[in-house]
Amino acid sequence: MEQTFIMIKPDGVQRGLVGEIIGRFEKKGFYLKGLKLITVDQSFAEKHYADLSAKPFFNGLVEYIISGPVVAMIWEGKNVVTTGRKIIGATNPAESAPGTIRGDFAIDIGRNVIHGSDSVESARKEIALWFPESPVNWQSSVHPWIYE
Question: Catalytic residues per the record (predicted)?
């Protein structure tokens, strides 16, 4: 089973979308393996977005992420990174299909509600950064009803 890192950004938390977003991943059949409500400090935000540090929007992105609490999560399932990105929608909400999180709940790219790992390698790095204590190890009793 693959794992991914998903973060509901401050705008998603402030708008009360946490339950809706968690529900979409649960209804798909993915397993929640880690969950934190956290206020991120600047140095931590800079580590998380280090790969974007040369971009002109980096400082604004860091300021946005530290502006309020976020919900950090680990989700597990078959092809969860790729499928999770499909559930989330395109980075630019204007390009996100209806039915995706960003397509349904976001308008501006700078307030796009949610972050999701873009590869298995990124997921490993992000999970290690956000959950140094490691994911919770459990298996749902409905597992055989979702996976062959």
Answer: 115 (pros-phosphohistidine intermediate)
145 belongs to a structural domain: no
Report whether 44 belongs to an annotated binding site.
Answer: no
* pLDDT-above-70 percentage for the chain: 100
Domain span holding position 24: 3-138
In a domain, 147, yes or no: no
Residue 115 is a catalytic residue:
yes
How confident is the model over 44-83, as pLDDT tens digits? 999 999 999 999 999 999 999 999 999 999 999 999 999 9
Catalytic member of 25, 75, 115, 123: 115
**Threshold 0.85, pTM exceeds:** yes
Domain count, the chain: 1
* 9 annotated as belonging to a binding site for a ligand: yes
Question: Do 70 and 8 form a contact (C-beta atoms < 8 A)?
Answer: yes
